[in-house]
Amino acid sequence: xxxPEKSAFLTSETAAACIDIAGGSPLYAYSLEKLEQAAxxxxxxxxxxxxxxxxxxxxxxxxxILKFFNSKNIHIDASSGYEVKRAMSAGIPAENISxxxxxxxxxxxxxxxxxxxxxACSVSQLERFGQAFEGTGQKVGIRxxxxxxxGGFSKSTTAFSKTNVGGPSSSFxxxxxxxxxxxxxxxxxxxxxxxxxxxxxxxxxxEPSIWQQVAVKSLSFCKVWDTVEALNLGGGYKVxxxxxxxxxxxxxxxxxxxxxxxxxxxxNGRELKLEIEPGTYLVAMGGALVSTVQDxxxxxxxxxxxxxxxxxxxxxxxxxxxxxxxxxITVFPGSGKTEDVGxxxxxxxxxxxxxxxGDLMTPKPGEPxxxxxxxxxxxxxxxxxxxxxxxxxxxxxSTKNYNSFPEAPEVLVDREGKAHLIxxxxxxxxxxxxxxxxxxxxx
Length: 443
Known about the structure:
The protein is of the alpha/beta class. It has helices at residues 12-22, 32-43, 63-71, 81-89, 108-114, 123-132, 177-180, 183-191, 208-222, 250-268, 280-283, 319-323, 428-431, and strands at 27-31, 51-56, 75-78, 97-100, 117-120, 139-145, 174-175, 194-199, 230-232, 273-276, 287-298, 306-310, 329-332, 345-351, 363-364, 367-371, 374-377, 384-388, 410-413, 419-423. Helices cover 27% and strands 22% of the residues.
């Protein structure tokens, strides 16, 4: 059971303060202290000849978070042309942004001319890039699918998984055989491009041992072009959200890779820089969803449960419904006072506010189609419920506006514990403002 007096970084009082400044719940709260701790750990990643940390901004793209990481000299990994522009609007220098995308934007030429770095993620993307910059020697990165992946609850390195982005069941990156058989080198030579970076990424929540193996294998692709200056090994480092779950030790996994870089330098005469792209690792435990228990119901007989209904749900945190992900849950008294925290517990199922049976906050681990009870402090209607580990792939990957629920506000808790509003609650009118009224005669 979660500690009833404090969540990962919130107390009854700070949770209530977040609700107050946001004008009610639900809301996302972020801890500046937790974000800084994670940033410092990533910046200390072992390396032989230089390190660039890129924040996978899709994890949580709020401009205040982007600005904070920029102040720590952490660069940006963008997954779409829209993310590139969003980062630049937050003040991120173009030269600090790298784009690896499933859909090469129509204006990629303009972005490159601004200073954006592009990793070609398919042969057709590389062809389009080459056609646009033929004969210029334009620098480009190559994202390679190394043949294996690892992520989430899946133990397979080749089968499909929602969090696995490597191997034969993944469409991400250029299949490694197309590098080995000369297909990719031929395209590079045809257009006179300069390959400056090799990029690989195998999944979110990957096994450290598999990540290390892929890191070493990725160095072989750097031998194909003597112009390669950096190897980007992606991210996907495990974060233990719940008690007993492991968190990847960055120092432990980084040291053998550092030795591999040194061996490469000795054999090839080139000192490669290392790039990593953490998303979850940087923000997961620095964020929480703060909700209110707005109803409590029960059923009787075989298979019966007591249900806590929140004023949030899959509209705010989709991971339980999508992956069967488990988040730590803490119940605080509605009074917002630690002194009112009770000691009684009960087994409950926590559900969201959507008219959707899959809006489930307590699934069985890895099984989003099945519910599970959690032992929590006995809650009453009006109590505060905090879901920790909600900093990554929650605000940025929600089903906002389903059932016309507005997008929730975001609050940053500073080092002194003061809450600052960093995104307002979405007005209802904004949900449907892009709808176009047509003549009644059409009906």
